[in-house]
Amino acid sequence: MRYCDFGATGLRVSEIGVGAYPISGMQRRPDGTRHGWSGTDDAASIAMIHRAEALGINVIDTAEGYGAGHSETLVGNALCGRRQKWVVATKVQPNQGLEAERPDTGAARRRIVEACDHSLKRLQMETIDLYQLHAIPYDWASETVMEALATLKAQGKVRFYGISTNDHQAIVRLRRSGPIDVLQVGYNLLERTADELLHWAREERIGTLIRVPLAKGMLTGTYAGKVAAEALPADDLRYDRFQRPEMQDALQKLQGLDFLTQGTGRTMPQAALRFVLQHPGVSCVIAGAKNERQVEDNAAACDVPPIEGPELERALAVADTIYTPGWIG
264: which of 83, 89, 102, 242 is 20 to 30 A away, CA to CA? Predict the structure, then answer.
């Protein structure tokens, strides 16, 4: 495993991190139906995190909204007794319970502070290394939200903070009210619109976490060539997305990327992760994993051959035939 400077934070982070959305698993809705990530098991998830640590991974990213807090709870259980080995990142939805047209700065401040306390309790931790906004705050709440984050940092509950968005203009506006230490950016071989933003983050010495590097499963190789009905069970949160006509077309075209694995020593996930790692603005790629085999495959992406020259040109050409605006989400 290789390690990078995390912007100007002074932290050193592994090139590959664990994205803990998939381990949130299935949740039961009020109407009794289930919805979430299929194919998960809590014991396997905890074993996966321990295996990641053994492989040199030291970053894990979760959120209060992943499985209504279940992901944070699992992360907390997994890291008991080994907290000091990890850089733990989680996220808060700043607009939850607020209304865009009804400013209430007191409620905005309470939202951030109370959510942080709840996350700390689920994580069984005294400090969150990186606390991120999971959305752009309403304009009227931005300054209050940044002040609340600064207060949490002064209290020792948060070490650094940032935001998960690809909206460059929103990031610039938010920085007028306080520092942004880290950006979580959606970027992968199929959707590369954040390229310029990543270069800018490097120039500004802002750390970056890259989300959806496997395009929500599209670049795992598991679903290439399949029809939507075969790809995922109906209660999987990705099912509706895979039903879209443009996505069904993409599943067929994904087979055009198979050359990235043929005689190269790469699996498809490793090829996708290696592509992202090659960007100079990338600090850490947070790849989702549900079990030890998947995290082992992800970690090995650091050591597979780079994608360059004619091979890179061919990969980009195929990817451009698959790309549909708005995939990052």
Answer: 242
Q: What is the DSSP string of 261-279?
A: TTTTS--HHHHHHHHHHTS
* pLDDT tens per residue across span 210-258: 999 999 888 998 888 887 667 788 888 888 888 888 888 888 899 999 9
CA atoms within 13 A on the CB side of 135: 13
The domain locations on the chain are: 3-224+268-305
pLDDT tens across 46-100, in order? 999 999 999 999 999 999 999 999 999 999 999 999 999 999 999 999 999 999 9
CA dihedral over 26, 31, 33, 37, signed as positive or negative: negative
C-alpha–C-alpha distance, residues 155 and 160, integer Å: 12
How many CB atoms neighbour CB 114 within 10 A?
A: 12
Among 151, 54, 58, smallest CA distance to 110 is for 151
Angle among Cα 116, 121, 124 to the nearest 5 degrees reads: 120
Domain 3-224+268-305 in CATH 3.20.20.100? The answer is yes
